[in-house]
Amino acid sequence: MPRLFTGVEIPPDLALDLDLMRGGVIGARWLDRENYHITLRFIGDIDDGLAREIAYELEGVEARPFQLRLKTIDTLGGNKPHSIIAGVEESPELRRLQAIHERICQALGLDAEPRKFVPHVTLARLRDPDLSSVHRYL
Fold first, then answer.
1. CA gap 57, 62 in Å, rounded
2. Of these four, 34, 37, 41, 117, which has the most CB atoms within 10 Å of its CB?
3. Catalytic residues
4. Is the overall model pTM greater than 0.85, yes or no?
5. CB of 87 within 8 A of CB of 70?
6. 48-59 vs 92-107: helix crossing angle, rounded to 10
7. What confidence score (pLDDT) does residue 40 get?
8. Cβ–Cβ under 8 Å, residues 10 and 121
9. Nearest to 104 by CA among 47, 42, 62, 58
10. Quick check: helix, strand or coil at residue 136?
11. Taking Cα atoms as reference points, which of 35, 33, 40, 51 lies closest to residue 6?
12. Per-residue pLDDT tens for 61-100?
């Protein structure tokens, strides 16, 4: 069973810039730059048939090119951070694309995504991080 999500790729030059920001946080597992993306819809573990249906429907999605801007380096998880992220500025075009992906997934029988869409690029996953090193990094 594949574990899937839909997303927007990060251009290589931006990924390189983000990659240069790695390090200095105890308890961080930094993602490789080729894995940087903005998740539009987490799908999870599904069977191959449904994965093919989703891929087929997504092939028909058309969107005009649009600009995205990163705004901040932050964490997710509140007082117990679990990720270091680069936040993405609000974008109506990105919201529209995310909504299309959500509608396709629901039309194919998936439950609605329960989490609020917070566009970001995950830079590192944190496991029992040293909070002082996280604060210094930020």
1. 11
2. 41
3. 37, 120
4. yes
5. yes
6. 140
7. 97
8. yes
9. 58
10. helix
11. 40
12. 999 999 999 999 999 999 999 999 999 999 999 999 999 9
